[in-house]
Amino acid sequence: MNAFQALFGPRNPPLIGIDISTSCVRLVELAQGAKDELRLERYAAEALPRGAVVDGAIENMDQVVETLRRVCKKSGTRARLVALGMPPASVITKKIILAAGLSEEQLEMQVESEASQYIPFALDEVSLDFDIIGPANSPEDVEVMLAASRREKIEDRVAIAEASGLKATVMDIESYAARAALDRVTALMPEAGAGRVVALFQVGAQVTHISVMLDGATVYEREQPFGGNSLTHDIVRAYGMAFEEAEARKKTGDLPDNYVPELLTPFLESAVMEVTRAIQFFYTSTPYTRIDRLFLAGGCALLPGLLDLIASRTRIACAVAAPFKGMQLGPTVRESQLRLDGPAYLVACGLALRRFG
């Protein structure tokens, strides 16, 4: 049962959050600052070679290990305990109702019995964990969240940490980590309050992950096959650059004059179309008819014009997710650079928050 490496388990400081995505390895280390505020101690990222991670699966262990070692050295961290994330598509989650008052051993037996109904694999092939969410509709019952993933997928990430001189103590779900980081930010907003519907669009390299929350609880989740790599490939084809150079120039905007009208603008239109379609699908497939605020995260969040275009087309209040908002900054963190980097670190920040429970 505990082979899931404490998906919902203990948080042991000091702890760093490591986000292994399709294109990059990102690290965040948080500490307790003055007046009980959080401090961003350090953060860093290193690009992954193409093909090292595909659809969340580790395809080249050596390349990922080498990249993780580089990012740890680059950051200067001395922490060795890490929180890692699993892609949502690799994890099966299910809310179940169980009798209240069961012992830990009885709960484990009941969860395993229930899990066999929802997991399309033999239980000895999966890592399984659970957490009691709270009372159910009946006072005699409790609502329990169970989570399961193929054991080898968990073990791959644990092995990468160990080969890099680290120890994985927490394994979370990337979408849960992102929401934890966003919850902290939305709680700081003046309009924070009950009954607000918040949507999060994380535009990654290949996939856009959509989460919609009501009072912090997820009411809708979906992935769409759209990401920033399509723009990078357009740059490669148009200007004959290597992929890595195209990716770097996409971020700096150091591209020929026709880049904006011929490549960037069509990409922005496609991105906005994906967002508006996702919102309409949310409205038609759920009882909800409004979104109060939309947050944009991921490497494409700061593409010039994207946020304004989404706000104009959806008529929803939009903002770029800033996971380190309200935190004190460590001596090595440059605030000006952080504003540019922050939206891509939502998952890594959420993982690092597990240090504080």
Would you give an account of this structure?
This is Competence protein A. One of its GO terms (biological process) is cell division. InterPro entries: ATPase_NBD, FtsA/MreB, PilM, SHS2_FtsA. By secondary structure, the chain is α/β, with parallel strands linked by helices. Among the domains are: 61 residues, Dna Ligase, domain 1 (2-Layer Sandwich); 136 residues, Nucleotidyltransferase, domain 5 (2-Layer Sandwich). It is 36% helix and 29% strand. The protein contains 10 helices and 16 strands. The strands form 4 sheets. Strands 10-6-1-2-3-16 form a 6-stranded mixed β-sheet. A 5-stranded mixed β-sheet has the order 13-12-11-14-15, with helices on both faces. The longest helix is centred in the C-terminal third of the chain and has 27 residues. The chain is globular. It starts with 15 loop residues before the first strand and ends in a 5-residue tail after the last helix. The N terminus is likely disordered.
